[in-house]
């Protein structure tokens, strides 16, 4: 029976980051180049045309591969978490985090992806990080691939469109799950797996100008990720039956622009295309609506014998997702104005405020998403990303008065609590960018999410000192009161 009063007493309050946006040290201790290392700082501030912002081409890759420093490539230097993790984890402990979501940087472990033996120095680094977390009573929640893969797999296998990548990923997962089997219990296979369709390079290592048909390549890559994810789930259960394996979706809830049935139908289609991913990973099979969609778009996904069985037999233990904004669908979208978001732009919703980056803020949408996903799957849910990207100002006295961030979190956590009272089985919540990191979509440092401020500008200048923002004390109170004191 759910606790109608609010969050369960073992609710996992936490914070999240990703290796490629935080660690830096992009070529230290044997690490190979990753897809994230190819993304330059982008000076144009067109936050609506995100395709352009996140776009990586054969030419830009060639340039990046020849560029042998971190300058101009912010994800290569991150916030130097690689060298400062002890200081950061001490701050997380002070904040009261019970769980910390991070990712393992795949090319730190297998620099080329297809190497047969792992890089010991990379493995040692995560041993130290997990030990430090455990010492501070913080449970790690680990994503195996968060928006990066070894570049060699992109150049030589076509990224995830290449079937061989499954075997390389499984070897990587086998290595780290065995190594950390007593240190890590919660694992996610792919961050925002739907990104492979929306942003094929970031999600699937697909260079769009190197394939004939981007949509075809993306769905093929996604299929390989589904199979890899199931194979890793199977393996995980053999390595340690106590492991809990989750899928991870960028939940993009679509509202119809009007009550016109055509718009309602369009919103339903868009919601289905988003939930396709959890349908496969939770229910264990492709939903019936995909056959027609693929046929109408000339997509034909090649599947090997045994693939569908693998998907069926090894489904996840829990569902995690990110939630930042809601989207709007219309049968004639060109009749409306558009706004940004980090994965794609959407129609403007006149009922919602927007950030400078065009993200529409919708706390109630989080409750809707939670209820609807629990209705659909009846599996424990975990909100593993939610947060506000904003520019912060350091006052003359050194303080950062981020009341806007407190308001954002208060409203979202409030709605989450309502969903729990509605009966949703919610395991935990990890706020995104618990400490300021490099933005995934814009590579800016100045789009900040943290409760902890990092002194660094968009061009990598600054002391890298960490400072507590006003929101730090607020979130500390929220955790200490188990979500009662908002
Ligand atoms: C999610 C990603 C994160 C992340 C966050 C905020 O889609 O999983 O890696 O950074 O969005 O996005 P951004 O950094 O673009 O503001």
List keywords for this structure.
single chain, 486 residues, alpha/beta, TIM Barrel, 8-stranded parallel beta barrel, two-stranded parallel ribbon, 13% strand, binds 6-O-phosphono-beta-D-galactopyranose, EC 3.2.1.-, glycosidase, GH_1_N_CS, hydrolase activity, acting on glycosyl bonds, Glyco_hydro_1_AS
What does this protein look like?
It contains 18 helices and 14 strands. With 486 residues, the chain is an alpha/beta fold. The chain has a single domain (12-480), classed as Glycosidases (TIM Barrel), CATH 3.20.20. It is globular and about 60 Å long. The model has no long low-confidence stretch (mean pLDDT 96). Residues 18, 21, 147, 191-192, 250, 322, 342, 385, 389, 432, 439-442, 447 line the site of 6-O-phosphono-beta-D-galactopyranose.
């Amino acid at each position: 029976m759910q606790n109608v009063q609010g969050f369960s007493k073992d609710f996992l309050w936490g914070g999240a980051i990703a290796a490629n946006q935080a660690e830096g040290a992009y070529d230290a201790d044997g690490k190979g180049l990753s897809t994230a290392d190819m993304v330059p700082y982008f000076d144009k501030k067109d936050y609506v045309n995100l395709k352009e912002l996140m776009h990586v081409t054969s030419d830009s890759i060639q340039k990046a591969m020849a560029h042998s420093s971190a300058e101009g490539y912010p994800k290569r230097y991150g916030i130097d978490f690689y060298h400062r993790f002890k200081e950061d984890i001490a701050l997380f402990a002070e904040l009261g985090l019970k769980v910390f979501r991070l990712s393992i940087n795949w090319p730190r472990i297998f620099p080329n992806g297809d190497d047969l033996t792992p890089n010991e120095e990379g493995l040692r680094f995560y041993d130290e990080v997990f030990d430090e977390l455990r010492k501070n009573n913080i449970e790690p929640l680990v994503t195996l691939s968060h928006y990066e893969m070894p570049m060699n797999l992109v150049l030589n296998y076509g990224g995830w469109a290449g079937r061989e990548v499954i075997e390389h990923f499984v070897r990587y997962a086998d290595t780290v799950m065995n190594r950390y089997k007593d240190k890590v219990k919660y694992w996610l296979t792919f961050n925002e797996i739907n990104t492979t369709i929306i942003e094929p390079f970031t999600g699937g290592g697909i260079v769009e100008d190197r394939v004939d048909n981007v949509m075809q390549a993306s769905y093929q890559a996604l299929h390989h990720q589904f199979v890899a994810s199931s194979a890793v789930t199977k393996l995980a259960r053999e390595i340690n039956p106590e492991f809990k394996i989750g899928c991870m979706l960028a939940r993009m809830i679509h509202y119809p622009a009007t009550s016109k049935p055509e718009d309602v139908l369009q919103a339903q289609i868009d919601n289905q295309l988003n939930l396709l991913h959890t349908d496969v990973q939770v229910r264990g099979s492709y939903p019936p609506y995909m056959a027609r969609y693929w046929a109408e778009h000339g997509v034909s996904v090649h599947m090997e014998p045994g693939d569908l069985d693998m998907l069926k037999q090894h489904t996840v233990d829990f569902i995690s997702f990110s939630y930042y904004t809601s989207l709007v669908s219309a049968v004639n979208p060109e009749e409306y104005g558009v706004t940004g978001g980090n994965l794609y732009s959407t129609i403007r919703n006149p009922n919602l405020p927007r950030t400078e980056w065009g993200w529409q803020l919708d706390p109630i949408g989080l409750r809707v998403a939670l209820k609807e996903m629990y209705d659909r799957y009846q599996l424990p849910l975990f909100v593993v990303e939610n947060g506000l990207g904003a520019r912060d100002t350091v006052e003359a006295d050194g303080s950062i008065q981020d009341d806007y961030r407190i308001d954002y979190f208060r409203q979202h956590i409030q709605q989450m609590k309502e969903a729990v009272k509605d009966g949703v089985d919610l395991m935990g919540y990890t706020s995104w960018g618990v400490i300021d990191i490099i933005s995934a979509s814009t590579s800016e440092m100045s789009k900040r999410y943290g409760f902890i401020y990092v002194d660094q500008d968009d061009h990598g200048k600054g002391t890298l000192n960490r400072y507590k923002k006003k929101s730090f004390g607020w979130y500390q109170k929220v955790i200490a009161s188990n979500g009662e004191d908002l």
